[in-house]
Amino acid sequence: MLKAHNVSLEVEGPGDTEENATLHLLREVSFTMPPAHLAAIVGPSGCGKTTLLKVITGIAQETSGELLWDGRNLSEEEDLHPGDLGYVPQFSVAHELLTVEESIGTVMALRTQLAKTEDFILSLDHILEMTGLTHLAERQVKVLSGGQKRRLGLALELVTDPSLLLCDEVTSGLDPRSEREITDLLRMLSREHPQRVVINVTHSLASLNAYDSVLVMYEGVLVYHGPPKDMTHYFAVEHPEEVYLKLTTRKAGDWHESWQKHRPAYYATHGFDNTRPPEAPVQKTIVGKVPDTGGPSKTSVRERRAVARAEVIEAGDDPREPHDLPLVELPSVTTQLFELLRRRWIIFRRDKAQVWLHLAMLLGFPLLVVIFALDGIKPLRALSAHQDANVQYEFERQAQHQAEQLAAGGLVSGLIMLQVVLVTLMASNNAAREIASERLILEREKLGGLHPFAYVGSKVIFLGIFVLAQSVWMGLFVDLVVGGLPGDLIIKLALLALASAAMTSVCLGVSALSKTPEKATILCIYLVGFQLPLSGAVLTLPDWLENWVQPLVAAFWSWSGSLSSMRSTAFYDAVNKVTATDLVAPTVAAFVLALHVLVGLCMTFVGVQRSQWDS
Prior knowledge:
By secondary structure, the chain is of the alpha/beta class. The chain folds into two domains: 2-270, 3-Layer(aba) Sandwich (Rossmann fold); 333-609, no CATH class. Helices cover 54% and strands 10% of the residues. The protein is built from 23 helices and ten strands. It has helices spanning 49-57, 100-111, 119-130, 146-157, 176-191, 228-235, 243-247, 252-270, 301-314, 333-350, 352-373, 377-384, 388-397, 399-431, 439-447, 452-482, 489-513, 517-529, 531-535, 543-549, 554-564, 571-578, 586-609, and strands at 2-12, 22-33, 37-42, 64-69, 72-73, 85-88, 164-168, 197-201, 213-218, 221-226. The strands form two sheets. A six-stranded mixed β-sheet has the order 6-7-8-3-9-10, with helices on both faces. A four-stranded antiparallel β-sheet has the order 2-1-4-5, covered by helices on one side. A hairpin with a 2-residue loop joins strand 9 and strand 10. Helix 14 runs antiparallel to helix 18 (517-529) and helix 14 packs across helix 22 (571-578). It is elongated and about 95 Å long.
């Protein structure tokens, strides 16, 4: 049984006056829904329907009042177990490039421990059949119709057999037939076992007769909760569509007070204060059981939980009392991590545009560096033939050699910086949209029990592969074609990889904190765009400003550390003559870049854990 007692939600308003200082999104909402019940929440736009659903779900926290589920106060105790709560938002929560079967299978692997058991296929087939998606199992989500995506949204929530199923406009925008089919499915789900409550927020009033009760919201207050057939009588209208117009004839507070007077009589008449209406007997059969094929007994988690419920009822217990029925156990963090990683690689392989873009950057950017180096390879090789003991002598005696040396020093500095800037550009492209583009899917998966460490860990591993591939290939290719840049190759590769990792980590953090992928992309472009001018490789900042800016510029540390690795070669003096910024030791550069990585990961964890349902 689900009960709400004087539930209110207030938020800060946009105005400075006392009247606008607080917005009352919900005001003293009270209702009772017995088990095996299907309810609709209706009302004009902006009346608080979705807000009420989010408060029940736990996404939004009520400012006052109580929510009770089976006698347990959700306002004071922990929220519902992820396996007992199903929430179907109005937007799609499935990746477009996955198939229907893959989408359901991934959710099962993230929310249950069925992935490595024989129950996995049985449960998957059962859910597909129940939601009418069996013939669409191999189709990608992107080709599904609106009604089919609504069915998929329901299917994703049925993997844990939730006792409380909340749906936000799953029937909105559908043709009459599809709307009727979805409504019939919701009704069937509400009857599948005697403890389930199903609530659907809807704008449509066409299929209200399929619901057991209707909640009418108006300006944040509840103005009616009763059977659909009595709604027109209560509001004194002929058709349900006329209810919204009738609401405008009185203030919301007046409607609320009127309903408070009539509610006890309605509840007593229709049995809403009991666990179920008197005419709804306790079901002791298991709905949708997989037919017996004569083989070994194999039951799914859904069936085992149904059996447990039947045993509780047969034992003579009062079904109105809460029972400790077996809950679906969440998988380990490691299992979730590898499942997310597997899913991410599938999506990447199927996104042909991204695959070709990564290949173009991987192969094209090193070529771009080499093109800039072609004219300077000759003086670079000429200078490399001189020993360190002869460098000072050549500076003093040969003006031509001095010019070549300065050219070589500028070339080396420019090549190193160009490599660094290009790997940071690739890193930005890799990470900028990584979390922001799937934010709403992440929010739903967190509600279903996804551990933040598993999610962030999967992103670190996935993007880490690109970091190593892009930075190492960049360094090796340029070094090979140029004929060997001065300095320790291992140090240069390590600093190049650290620069890529630092920018990847920071951009991943920006993606996690951003509300939209577009904002994340713009911010990350700015980060990369300022790397070159603020690094000190081309333009020199004033001393008082340089000390504040350089610690934040990853390109500076990778470039500076790489040039410092040439200290034992003839090029170091040449590089110093064309560089106005003091260079740092490779160990210091590596330490600062590691701090950048750590800061980016902290940003990512904070962003992932922060709720952004309204993004």
